[in-house]
Amino acid sequence: MPCLAGAAIAAAGLVSAAPASAHNVGSTTLRQGASGASVLKLQEGLTKAGFTTRASGKFSPQTTSDLKRFQRFYELKPTGVADAHTLATLHEVGKLDAETVDTQSSGGSGLSTKTPVKVKARRSHAKRGVTTDPTKLLKSNPVLAPVKQNGQSKHLGNRVLRPGMHGHDVRVLQAYLTVDGYPTTVDGDYGPATKSSVVSWQGANGVTANAVFTYSDSRKLREDVAKVEASPRAKHNKLQTTPGATATIEANGDARAPASAPRAVKTMIAAANSIDTTSYCYAGGHGSWNSSCYDCSGATGFVLHKAGFLNSPEPSGAMEGMWEPGKGRWVTVYANAGHAFIVIAGLAFDTAHWGPTAPGGSGPRWLQKSDALANLNDGTGGYTARHPPGL
Fold this sequence. Notes:
By secondary structure, the chain is an alpha+beta fold. The protein has three domains: 20-98, PGBD-like superfamily/PGBD (Muramoyl-pentapeptide Carboxypeptidase, domain 1); 102-230, Muramoyl-pentapeptide Carboxypeptidase, domain 1, CATH 1.10.101; 237-387, endopeptidase fold (from Nostoc punctiforme) (Alpha-Beta Complex). The protein has helices at 37-48, 61-73, 84-98, 135-140, 168-179, 192-204, 215-230, 232-235, 263-275, 296-306, 316-319, and strands at 101-102, 111-112, 241-242, 248-249, 255-258, 279-280, 293-294, 324-325, 331-335, 340-344, 347-350, 357-358, 365-367, 384-387. The chain has a seven-stranded antiparallel sheet. α9 packs across α10. The two termini are 28 Å apart.
């Protein structure tokens, strides 16, 4: 099956194609190695758009990587070069942020959309007193409790939420997004990172992905969270283990982690088990981590993300140069320009099936130990072996 190698992921309507005049914006094309005020402005713009980039004024390899993520998200060719079209799109994203600033300090949704107001980039890094544990919020806010639309900020759904706003309802939004599979720092600040999570959630749920979170959105999200909390997988917190150094496959198709494996390995196996009944779809797992279907790099990325080794979805080609070179003791990622899969504690987790799968069906599945490396002979060749540090 084909896998996402360099295709862009739609922004689901957040920003339309750049206007015809976009190609006249700016006369300088910025690329790796450049430096100066223009590069600094580019980096600040990327951070403001939710793609945190170090503002050094030097176009480093990391800036190239961050720019590619932005280009993929907004359906631009992921060249890592800031041409006029890319800069025009970045400008439109910044303009959206500037026009959606909360004009009231407490409650209300009076937003200034006629007179653009420049806002500072708000980084959603954890601060003192900030929790990333959503369960604390869920206990005091029944998921499906009725909410009155009154313009206040006491409960999610009281008012329409947009980038730039803040309050308790924003905290609940962030907590519920985290529970629903869109990890978001709970700080009450609707900044770029929260906006990115909301847009991903909206795109995955067939909602206009404009970062404007409405009452109907809040009802849908509450229903999603209620389903997650009620699912057997959510209640099954303890991962069963097996003796030895190799994972085994249970009768239900899930893998059982070796008791001697590091916590990160057990986390990866649990993550893979959580999606091993989903189906295959091209670009699945790239628009958002939480998906009903995944492609090869989407499934591999999901597993690595859950263990803390990947911050954003990446195509298979990008995985050729990530982490540490060579095979790992516990985990190895095999990638080339068109395919990627991961071997965890001796078992392959893959969407291309060279041998019996567990459980049966198409999509991300486990392969028996004897077939763990069978896909290396798929004829495409050129696989690069990489492994997460320490594993």
